[in-house]
């Protein structure tokens, strides 16, 4: 993920953006970052307190999505935080 996108996410979180906001499928920002393999963003979200155990409407955690998409470096980060 380009550094400017991580900085943008940090600015939003520092300004009070809801870290645990969910979409219509109960996906959190951490679900999206893990699903896309965005390691730097995952690291930032975890540092800010994102919960690894939250499940989507389909019962998937961010770790599950990382595994499904073979983003093993992201999965490693998520499993350390679990």
Description:
It is a single chain. The protein has 82 residues and is mainly alpha-helical. Helix content is 56%, strand content 0%. The protein is built from 5 helices and no strands. The chain has helices spanning 3-14, 29-36, 39-47, 62-68, 72-81. The chain starts with a helix and ends with a helix.
Short description:
With 82 residues, the chain is mainly α. The chain is built from five helices and no strands.
Secondary structure topology:
Blueprint lengths: L2 H12 L14 H8 L2 H9 L14 H7 L3 H10 L1
Helix pairs in contact: 2-3, 2-4, 3-5, 4-5
Number of strands: 0
- Uncertain ranges: none
Number of contiguous helices: 5
Fraction of residues in helix: 55-70%
The CATH architecture term is Alpha Horseshoe
| CATH level-1 class | Mainly Alpha
Q: Major beta sheet, specifics?
A: none
**SS content category:** mainly alpha
**Gyration radius over CA:** 12 Å
Oligomeric grouping of the chains:
single chain
What would the principal axes of the Cα set say about the shape? globular
Taken as a percent bin, the fraction of beta residues is: under 5%
CATH superfamily: Ankyrin repeat-containing domain
Give the SSE string. HHHHH
